[in-house]
Amino acid sequence: MAPKIFITGGTGYIGGTVLDTIVKKHPEYEITALLRSEPEDFAKTYPNVKVVRGDYDSADVLSEAASKADVVVHNGNSDHVPSIKALIDGSLKSDKPTFLLHLSGTGLIADWRDPSWVGKLNPKTWSDVDDIREITTRPDGELHRHVDKIILAAAQQHGEKLKTAIICPPDIYGPGRGLKNKHTVYFPVFLKEIEKIGRPFYGNEGENVRSWVHIEDLMKVYRGLVESAVAGGEGADWGVDGYYFAATQSHSQRFLAERVAAILGTTATSISSEEIDKTMAAFGVPHLGTYMFGANSRSKADRAGKNFGYEASAPGLWEVLEEEVRAAARLERISFQGHTF
Ligand SMILES: NC(=O)c1ccc[n+]([C@@H]2O[C@H](COP(=O)([O-])OP(=O)(O)OC[C@H]3O[C@@H](n4cnc5c(N)ncnc54)[C@H](OP(=O)(O)O)[C@@H]3O)[C@@H](O)[C@H]2O)c1
Fold it and tell me: CA torsion sign, 334 to 76 to 79 to 216?
C-alpha cells in the first residue's frame, strides 16, 4: 500500500517547498494537503494530491486527516497550539504508529531576551546532538517553546504510537516553491525597516551572529525524515531526541548589513539597542526587532549530519544575496535612491 502523507502549510514558503519536493521525489506516495483556500493552479500542478478543506482551527478535520496518515508533516505556523493538539489527537487514533514532523525555528535558542547581547558576539553555538537536553528543556517564554513542549510531552507519553521530529531551521533564503508564497520572511522585513531607517543597519557593533540555510538544503532534512518515516523510522532519531537543526552557515549582522548596503549603493549604519528594539513594531510581537536583527542564534545541524550525511550543496547566502535583495524589493515595491529593482 502506498504510504499516506498528510501535509499542512503546503502553499507557503517552507511547506510549499516541502510539498513540491515530496510530490516530485515520491510520486508513489499518497499525499493529502490541508488547504484553507485552494490556489487556482493547485489541481493542475498537483493532480494526484488529495485536498482536504480546513484551517488550523478545524480540529476535527485535522484530527481525522492525521488519523488516516502514516506521516503528518505540519508546516505553516510554528506557534499554533490547537492545530498541533488536533494532529496529535488524530495520530493517536490510528491503529499503527504515526510519524509527526513539525516545523519549529531556531528562535528557540536565540539570546534576544537578554538585551546586553545586542550587537555582541555570543560564543555559544548550539548543537542539536551535544545540547539536546538543554534544547528540549528551554525555559517557557522562548520562541516556539510552548508548541515544542506539547510535542515533546506527547512523544514521551506515547513514544510507541507517536514518533515525532521537530525541524528547526535558522533564517532561510533562496526561492521557495509554494504556490502562494515563494519568499522567505527575512529580506522583505529587513528592507522595509531599512526603508524607514534610511540605510541597512545593525545594533551597536553588529557582531551578533545568526545561522542560515538555503531552502533547498533544508529540503534534504525533510526528505531524510519523510523517507525514514516511510521506512518505519529507520536511520533517524525520533521523540525526545528527534530534534533537527538545519544550519549550513553563520554570518554577523554587520557583515550582512554592509553587503546589503553595497547592493543598494549606500553604506550600513549602527543603531542603538533601543532603536533596534523599535523595529518590526507593526508585527505587535514584543522585542521582535531585537530578535531579528540584534540577537545571536547560532546552530549546527549535527543530527542531520549524523543521520543523513547532511551538508550544504545549494549556493551560499553571499552568492545569491543580490537576487534575494532585489526579489524582496520587488515584492515590497521598495525603491532606493530612485532606483527600482
Ligand atoms: N522563513 C523562515 O526563515 C523561517 C525560519 C524558521 C521558522 N519559520 C517558521 O515557519 C513557519 C512558516 O513559515 P513560512 O515562511 O513557510 O510561512 P508562509 O509562507 O506564510 O506559509 C504559511 C503556510 O501556512 C498556511 N497557514 C497559515 N495559517 C493557516 C491557518 N490558520 N490555517 C490553514 N493554513 C494556514 C498558509 O496557507 P495560505 O496560503 O492559505 O495562507 C501557508 O500555506 C512560521 O511559523 C515561521 O515562524 C520560518
Answer: negative
CA 263 – CA 266 distance, rounded (Å)? 8
Among 17, 53, 101, 181, residue to substitute to test ligand 1 (most atoms within 8 Å of Cβ): 181
Look-up of cell digits 514518533: 163
Residues facing residue 24 across a β-bridge: none
pLDDT tier for residue 111 given thresholds of 50, 70 and 90: very high
Vertex 266: Cα angle to 264 and 269 (nearest 5)? 115
How far does the centroid of ligand 1 lie from the alpha carbon of residue 10, in Å? 9
- In which residue are the cell numbers 519568499 written? 183
C-alpha cell at 149: 513542549
Separation of alpha carbons 4 and 336, rounded Å: 48
Ligand 1 atom closest to 14 (CA) = 16
Ligand 1, residues at Cβ distance < 6 Å: 9-15, 36-37, 55-56, 75-79, 103, 105, 169, 171-172, 178, 180-181, 184-186
- Number of Cβ within 10 Å of residue 117's Cβ equals 21
Terminal C-alpha separation, the chain? 50
pLDDT in tens, 286-309: 999 999 999 999 999 999 999 999
